[in-house]
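debug: dumping io for the single-chain case to check the tokenizer round-trip. Nothing else runs in this session.
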Amino acid sequence: MSTEYVRPWYGTWPPELRGNNSMKRRKTWREWRRISLVMVTALLLGVTLLLVSSLLLQEWPDWKFFLNSFGVAFVIAGILGLTIDRLFRQQLAEDAFKASIGYILPDELKGEMEWIYGSHIICTQHIQRCELYPIDDETCIIHVDIQRKFRNISRNRSLLKLGVAIDEWFHKTGSSRILSFGYSKASDSWPKEGKGFSITKGECSIIVEEQEVSLAPLEETTLWYEIEEVKRTNDVQSWVFQYPTLNPQVTVKAYEGIAINAGFGYRLPAEQLSVGTYRLTGTLLAGQRMEIRWWEKANSERWLSDDQKTT
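debug: decoded output
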């Protein structure tokens, strides 16, 4: 299953706060191209004047000094315009954004906005499939297959940390397992063919050794993993992700007699696309949870019936 990639509302980083994003991107590109053309022209003019002053005007020292001075000025202007000036203007825009947000927000939220502003990597695609299998009357297995695509939305190279950790519930009917884990970037992938991944145990968890991936600006990588946990037939499963996730989608398939629901720790409710398939239209921030809840229909109906009798 795949989903169409939707570009984040802020486009690139720092964010574009208002207006039509596509029009702003085209306008920004036209302005950058126009300014760059002027700077390159100034640089080429400066080089031309320096060549003329050194090759053709040996007999006119006054003109040689005049053209040489103008040539140096144009060369310096072109270099500064293409490099340092652009960096300063970008930094000035970022500082102005931080200052304005810092002025508007109360003190309790300033640190959180700074944390969000520092997010350079976003998950642009999250596809999650969950299936429940019965073990006995009290327990079941939840099998989860997740694929996440990450993109570096900053203008600098950023480090992406990939890993997975799941809980162990110590049920007598079985234990949690990490069945697969890996990632791919361009033509490279990990783990290599014939090799596995390292798993360690915590007091009540199973952890895959974290992998670090360096991403250039706008570069992408895809993570996948497959896990199983033994849970109760009336239970809940939550996931918390390390990076902001755009429009996450989850599909849940249950066995007969089990009802399901899925939600996100977000200000808006999830959209139900079809039976068992839910999607959040928005960006789930790092630390906000995704949750699946399931229960036995017969127990729920009996519980509701008893409540009606008492009232």
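debug: round-trip ok. Residues 265 and 289 are 5 Å apart (CA to CA).
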